[in-house]
């Protein structure tokens, strides 16, 4: 009987180490945070970096510099996102201090299972992108 219990424990530990299971398949163990991503990659290269970026989601803000060679993306973590649309704001200044983007939009955070349907974690996320003219729009998941 002890051998069976040891085998069952070993199998459970193996399943946990593999990230659990969902729908009869192993789930990857990638984590995720709730919040909104801002993609600035379409801004013209004529705007010299570093950029000073302030991104806000429903009053929760993140401010950082994006230097040359860094991905042109900013993420604002917001643990209180629900299913209702929220306001997002983005302000970008170039290296000379010139305002390149001053944009506002509303986005509807959606349930997102980073490891696939039926796998944890499931968080509320929204994605936005800035077009070359500086307009901010919500993107599909």
What does this molecule look like?
With 141 residues, the chain is mainly beta. It is built from one helix and eleven strands; from the N terminus they run αβββββββββββ. It has one helix at residues 2-17, and strands spanning 21-22, 25-26, 35-39, 51-57, 60-66, 73-77, 86-93, 99-107, 110-113, 122-130, 136-139. Strands 3, 6, 9, 10 and 11 form a five-stranded mixed sheet that branches. A four-stranded antiparallel sheet has the order 5-4-7-8, with no helix packed on it. It has a two-stranded antiparallel ribbon with strand order 1-2. β9 and β10 form a beta hairpin. The longest helix is centred in the first third of the chain and has 16 residues, at 2-17. It is globular, with a radius of gyration of 20 Å. The relative contact order is 0.23.
Give a short synopsis of this structure:
The chain is mainly beta and 141 residues long. Helices cover 11% and strands 44% of the residues. The protein is globular, with a radius of gyration of 20 Å.
Major beta-sheet overview: 5 strands, mixed
Average residue-wise pLDDT: 84
| Helix count, DSSP H or I runs of 4 or more residues | 1
Query: Which spans have pLDDT < 50 for at least 5 consecutive residues?
Result: 1-22
Query: Residue share in helices?
Result: 10-25%
**Between the first and last Cα atoms, what is the distance in angstroms?**
49 Å
């Amino acid at each position: 009987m002890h051998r069976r219990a040891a085998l069952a424990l070993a199998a459970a530990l193996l399943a946990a180490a593999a990230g659990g299971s969902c729908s009869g398949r192993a789930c990857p163990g990638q984590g995720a945070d709730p919040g909104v991503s801002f993609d600035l990659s379409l801004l013209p290269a004529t705007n010299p970096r570093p950029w000073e970026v302030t991104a806000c989601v429903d009053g929760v803000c993140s401010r950082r510099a994006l230097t040359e060679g860094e991905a042109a993306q900013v993420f604002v973590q917001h643990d209180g996102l629900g299913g209702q649309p929220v306001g997002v704001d983005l302000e970008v200044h170039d290296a000379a201090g010139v305002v390149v983007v001053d944009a506002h939009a509303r986005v509807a955070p959606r349930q997102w299972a980073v490891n696939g349907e039926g796998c944890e974690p499931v968080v509320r996320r929204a994605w936005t992108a800035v077009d070359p003219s500086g307009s901010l729009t919500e993107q599909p998941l």
